[in-house]
Specification:
Order of helices and strands: HEEHHEEHEEEEHHEEEHHHHHHHH
Distance between the termini: 101 Å
Number of helices: 14
Radius of gyration: 34 Å
Number of domains: 4
Strand order of the largest sheet: 6-5-7-8
Structural class: alpha+beta
Number of strands: 11
Strand content: 15-25%
Largest sheet: 4 strands, antiparallel
Length: 375
C-alpha cells in the first residue's frame, strides 16, 4: 500500500514551451479524470509518462485522460485525448511534415459521391464521411485516411448540429497518426471516440477551445452572387485570397498554416480583420502581370522637325512642344505623319484634356529640343 501511494504521489517535472510542468498520477486522478471513472495506478502513470514524452501540458488543456467502454471487448479502457491545437503542434515539430488537406465525402443532389475541401458543403449534400491527406517531404505520395460518418456519429451533443466539422477531424487525426506513428503513439482526438473535445470534463485552468466556438452568422455575397454564411470575411476578401492561392501552391500552404494556427477549419471562418492579415501575408506570392513589350517606332528626324516648327508656329515654348509631342505620340500612339497632317485637331484635344495649352516657359533651345526628341 505504501509503494502505491509513493508511485501515485511521485511528481514528474518537465518543460513545455518554456514553462515548467509538475504532474503526478494522483494529480491526474484528482483534477483531470472524470469523477465516475477514476484511473487505475497503471493508467494514471501511463498518462503522466505520455504527457512527459510528448511535451504536453494537461494544465492548459493540451491533453486529458478519458475512460470508455470498448464495444468489442466490453471492458473499460483509457486513452490520452489531445486537443486539436496540441495535435497539430506535434506535426509541426517534425521537419518532414509538409502540411495536410482535409474535407468531407458527400453525396450530391444528383447522386454523385465527391470529396469537398474543408467543412463547407451544400445544403442538398448528404454527408457520408471525411477524408484527409497528410504530406511528408520524404514520402512520394501522401498518407490518406477516409472514414464513414456512421461509425462515429452517435447523435451526441455537437455531432447533432456540426457533423461536418466533427467528422473532418477524425481522418485528420488518423492520417497524421499513420504518417507519424512515433509522434502520435496512443494519442487520439475526442471526435475519434464519438465525443467532442468540450463534452469531456475540462482540466482546471485555461482550456483552449476549438473552432466550434467561432460562429458564422454573417451573410456574405460572393462575386458569383451566391450568399454564404461566414464569420465576417467579405466576398471581395474571399476573391482576393482565392486569386493568389489558385496561382501559387506555396500561397495555398501559407493559408493552411494560418488557419491551423488560428484553429479554424476553413477560410469562411475568418473574420474581417483576419482576412486582411491573410491578404497582406499572401501579397508576396502574388504574380505581377507580365510587362507588355512596347514596339519602339523610329520617327524620321525630318518629320520631327516639321512637327516642332508647326508647334512653334502655334506659339508653344520648347517644354510645351515636348509635352504635346510626348502626349500625342507616346501616350496616345498617334502616328507622327498623321499628327503632322491633323496637327490642329490633335492640339485642340491636347488643350481640352489639360484645360489649357502649355506649361511654364521652356528652357530648351531649338537645337536641344531637336536633339531631345531624336533620342
Amino acid at each position: 500500500m505504501g509503494n502505491e501511494n509513493t508511485t501515485m504521489n511521485t511528481i514528474r517535472k518537465y518543460e513545455v514551451n518554456g514553462s515548467e510542468v509538475s504532474l503526478s498520477p494522483a494529480m491526474v486522478n484528482k483534477f483531470m479524470a472524470s469523477d465516475s471513472a477514476e484511473l487505475t495506478e497503471k493508467e494514471a502513470v501511463n498518462f503522466v509518462n505520455l504527457c512527459l514524452y510528448n511535451h504536453l501540458n494537461p494544465w492548459v488543456g493540451d491533453a486529458y485522460p478519458v475512460k470508455y467502454k470498448n464495444s468489442r471487448t466490453g471492458k473499460f479502457e483509457c486513452s490520452l485525448i489531445v486537443s486539436k491545437q496540441a495535435y497539430m503542434k506535434q506535426a509541426e515539430k517534425n521537419p518532414n511534415w509538409d502540411g495536410f488537406e482535409a474535407g468531407l465525402i458527400v453525396e450530391t443532389k444528383a447522386g454523385d459521391v465527391i470529396d469537398r475541401v474543408g467543412s463547407f458543403h451544400l445544403r442538398d449534400d448528404k454527408i457520408l464521411g471525411g477524408w484527409c491527406k497528410v504530406y511528408r517531404k520524404d514520402f512520394r505520395a501522401p498518407v490518406e485516411s477516409r472514414v464513414m460518418l456512421s461509425e462515429y456519429d452517435k447523435g451526441r451533443s455537437t455531432w447533432k448540429t456540426m457533423k461536418a466539422t466533427m467528422i473532418r477531424k477524425v481522418p485528420m487525426a488518423q492520417a497524421h497518426r499513420d504518417a507519424f506513428p512515433a509522434e502520435y503513439q496512443n494519442m487520439y482526438l475526442a471526435e475519434e471516440l464519438g465525443h467532442n473535445e468540450l463534452d469531456i470534463k475540462p482540466v482546471t485552468g485555461e482550456v483552449i477551445r476549438d473552432e466550434e466556438t467561432r460562429t458564422k452568422d454573417t451573410d456574405t455575397e460572393l462575386m458569383t452572387g451566391q450568399i454564404i454564411k461566414t464569420a465576417g470575411i467579405t466576398g471581395d476578401q474571399i476573391k482576393g485570397i482565392e486569386d493568389v492561392t489558385t496561382e501559387s501552391n506555396t500561397a495555398n500552404k501559407e493559408l493552411s498554416f494560418y488557419l491551423k494556427a488560428k484553429e479554424l477549419p476553413e477560410m469562411t471562418s475568418l473574420n474581417n480583420t483576419e482576412a486582411d492579415e491573410v491578404i497582406e501575408l499572401l501579397q508576396k506570392f502574388k504574380k505581377e502581370p507580365e510587362a507588355m513589350e512596347v514596339e519602339v517606332v523610329e520617327i524620321p528626324l525630318e518629320i520631327k522637325t516639321q512637327l516642332y516648327e508647326a508647334m512653334a508656329d502655334m506659339g508653344l515654348k520648347d517644354k510645351e512642344c515636348k509635352q504635346f509631342f510626348d502626349w500625342a505620340v507616346d501616350e496616345h500612339n498617334v502616328d507622327p505623319e498623321i499628327l503632322l497632317t491633323d496637327f490642329t485637331e490633335w492640339f485642340d484635344k491636347f488643350e481640352l484634356e489639360f484645360n489649357k495649352p502649355g506649361v511654364p516657359e521652356g528652357e530648351l533651345s531649338h537645337d536641344d529640343f531637336i536633339n531631345g526628341i531624336n533620342e
